[in-house]
Design goal:
The protein is built from 11 helices and 15 strands. The protein is α/β, with parallel strands linked by helices. It has one domain: NAD(P)-binding Rossmann-like Domain (Rossmann fold). The strands form 5 sheets. Strands 3-2-1-4-5-7-12 form a 7-stranded parallel beta sheet, sandwiched between helices. It has a two-stranded parallel sheet with strand order 6-15. The chain has a two-stranded parallel ribbon with strand order 8-11. Helix 3 (131-150) packs parallel to helix 4 and helix 5 (240-250) crosses helix 11. The protein is globular, with a radius of gyration of 22 Å. This is Erg26, C-3 sterol dehydrogenase. Its EC number is 1.1.1.170. It comes from Neophaeococcomyces mojaviensis. Keywords: Oxidoreductase.
């Protein structure tokens, strides 16, 4: 945009309540709504996670996110975050509330105080959490949120929630075994999912959200679901970028030369800021639809509809899985060299190693770094189409795949340095 062009008018979403607002995705949603206070200088004591570009050895100068993503009118957009504990990832300008999303009484207390126009649910346990926790939070917690937000089952909280956007997962259409190539929302949900209970609970939660869209039982609240693919970025503490960086930080260099399979498989990842953008664009579209309905205007055309719909969001740029890995290793200072330096293990042989590792883990009680499922994910194609959200909501990824991964690695390097310093300090004080 040239300096002569007028800046876009800041958007307004009214009062927004971000569920899981102190988590990975929720933090970035809050940050965008507040026009990126994370990029402003803050004392470390107030900023446990820095979202801005690091000044470390492997960093390059990123242009500010606040100049690239949409801005929000701070007079008319009020930002609240709800989490089980709000002791980390706090940003100035947001009001924080502690509550358990499976407890209707606690939720009702917060809703009476906040009176949100929009609810964006980003709460979810780790994919490795016990089955009982996944069921309780992802399915039962989402259902309770819908019932409280709707203002019917548990009584009025003094307002009306117009839009409810749920963070689902692209994995809801994957059996964790087959290739996915340019998969879209027409693919069926995998229920039950024998290999990934996390994905099954995300699918069941999504069904809960979409089936009540516009229904009287939730006060006519409009609902949608967003399905991110392979989220990476600053603050990732359990996803693919954290896993690769953590491996590279502790593994001997020779291990990083190993590749499972032929390396030709494409994989989708999505920068977390782009995921937040997708969630906010869907919320905006739901508000427009709600206003249209309340004014008695004609129905939205089916091919333009957002309410009651699910949307896949990606970086729209699938990459070769092992090229992603080697990019991360290189950015951490672990140079592999050319492809002639890579040791490619055939998938079948890698599966045997994975099976033996599982047996050893079962006997010893120690979880290995490799199993048959990690081998499968390292060798299959898994990428999606995000054309639907592009057409209906105007989504375009703002941060590209390479920059997203660079930001992930830089953040991990800084986080790892601080953790090491903290550990050293604790030892000295003992």
């Amino acid at each position: 945009m040239s300096s002569s062009e007028p800046l876009p008018t800041p958007k307004s979403l009214g009062t927004v309540l971000v569920i899981g607002g102190c988590g990975f995705v929720g933090l970035h949603v809050v940050d965008q709504l507040l026009n990126f206070p994370s990029e402003k200088a803050q004392p470390k004591s107030q900023s446990p996670i820095s979202l801005g570009p690091n000044k470390g050895r492997y960093a390059f100068n990123f242009s500010a996110l606040s100049t690239r993503y949409p801005s929000y009118d701070q007079q008319t957009t009020k930002v609240h975050a709800l989490d089980l504990k709000c002791t980390r990832n706090r940003l100035p300008g947001c009001t924080y509330h502690e509550a358990d999303i499976t407890d209707a009484e606690q939720l009702l207390r917060v809703f009476k105080e906040v009176k949100p126009d929009v609810v964006i649910n980003t709460a979810s346990p780790s994919w490795e959490a016990p089955r009982k926790i996944l069921q309780k939070v992802n399915v039962e917690g989402t259902r309770t949120l819908l019932e409280v937000a709707g203002g019917v089952k548990y009584g009025s909280w003094g307002g009306k929630c117009k839009a409810f956007v749920h963070t689902s997962s692209s994995s809801v259409i994957h059996d964790a075994q087959s290739n996915l190539r340019n998969a879209d929302e027409r693919w069926p949900l995998v229920i039950p999912n024998e290999r990934e209970y996390y994905s099954e609970t995300k699918a069941r939660a999504e069904l809960e959200v979409l089936k009540v869209n516009g229904k009287d039982e939730v006060g006519g609240m409009l609902t949608s679901a967003v399905r991110p693919a392979g989220i990476v970025g600053e603050g990732d503490m359990g996803g693919i970028s954290y896993g690769l960086c953590k491996t590279a930080s502790v593994a001997p260099l020779w291990q990083l030369h190993i590749q499972l399979g032929d390396g030709d498989n494409l994989f989708d990842t999505t920068y977390v800021g782009n995921v937040a953008l997708g969630l906010l664009l869907v919320a905006e579209a739901l508000l427009i639809t709600h206003k249209r309905k309340s004014e008695g205007k004609g129905e939205i055309l089916e091919h333009e509809r957002v309410d009651g719909e699910a949307f896949i969001v990606t970086n729209d740029a699938p990459c070769y899985f092992w090229e992603i890995s080697r990019f991360a290793y290189s950015r951490m200072g672990k140079e592999i060299g050319g492809v002639d330096k890579v040791w490619a293990l055939p998938e079948g042989f890698a599966n045997v190693i994975g099976g033996l590792s599982e047996i050893f883990g079962a006997v010893s009680g120690r979880k290995g770094k490799i199993n048959r499922q990690t081998v499968k994910y390292s060798c299959i194609d898994r990428y999606y189409s995000c054309e639907k959200i592009k057409r209906r909501c105007g989504y375009r990824p703002v941060v590209g795949a390479e920059e997203g991964w660079a930001r992930s690695v830089d953040w991990f390097l800084e986080w790892d340095r601080q953790e090491r310093e903290r550990g050293t300090g604790e030892k000295k004080s003992q």
